[in-house]
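C-alpha cells help. Our protein:
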Amino acid sequence: MIQTAAWPFVKMHGLGNDFVVLDARTRALALTPERVRALADRRTGIGCDQLVVIAPAKGQVSDATMLIFNADGSEVSACGNATRCVAWHLMRESGASKVVIETRAGLLDAESRGEHLVAVDMGRPGLDWRDIPLARAVDTLHLGIAAGPLADPVGVSMGNPHAVFFVENAEAVDLAAFGPGLEHHSLFPERANIEAAQVLTPPDAALGRIRMRVWERGSGITMACGTGACATLVAAARRGLSPRKAEIVLDGGLLAIEWLPDDHVLMTGPVATSFAGVLDPTLLP
C-alpha cells in the first residue's frame, strides 16, 4: 500500500445529502472509524454525511463495488443518494448509460435519465420484522413505539432499517430532540433511520406527494435520504395513505419514488459534483 502519496477525492451530493467519494479500484485503502470521522468533520476535514469508497467489482455482473461509511465511522449497507452519485460518476467515466453497482445490500441497477438525473432500482423492501431487523417479533405496520409527537411508526428495510412516523406537520417535528433516542431504541438492534412524513395528497391521487424529514443513523439530520424516501413511500402505500407512486419532498428537493408491480422500488433524482481535490497524506496515510 502507498503510504505517503496524496489521495484524490470527489465531493458529490444528491439533494444536499453529501459524500466524499474515494476511488480504491486500483489502489489499496485502509480505513478506520477514526479516519472516516476525521474526513467527515466539517471543520477540520472535508465534511460529509457519508464517506463512499468505490472498490473493484467482485464478479462479472457488476461494474464496481460501493462501500458506505456514516459520519460517525460506522459502515452501512445502503444509501440511495450515494448510489445515484457513484452511478453518475461511473457512467461519465465509461460513457455507458447503465451500470450495476454491488453493495452490501445487493446488486443495484442504475441508469441515466437525463443530464445529472439517475434512476436506481433499489430492490424489494424488507417488510418482515427479521428483515429490518427488529429485536422481537412485531407487526411492522405498527411498531408500537413513540417519542413526543412521533408515534406508531411503520418499519421498512431498504437494505438498512427505517421507522416511518406519519405526522400532521413534518416541519414542526423537532428531529434533533427525538431522533437520537428513537435511532437507538431497544427495538432496533442495528439502530434505525427515523423519518417524519406528512402526506399531502389523498390516497386515490394519480401521483402522491409526501413531505419527509429524516434523522439518519450515524449522521443526524440530513437534507435528503434516498432509502428513507423509498421507505416512506412503501410505508404510506402499506397504510393506504398514498398511491404506489409519489414525489417525496425532502429538505434538499424532490425524489420520484415508485413501488413497482414486481415489488421493486424505483428511485429517480438528481446528482451533483461540488468539487474535486486531493487529501493531505496526514488525513489518509
Residues 22 and 53 are 5 Å apart (CA to CA). The chain has two domains: 7-122+271-279, 146-263.
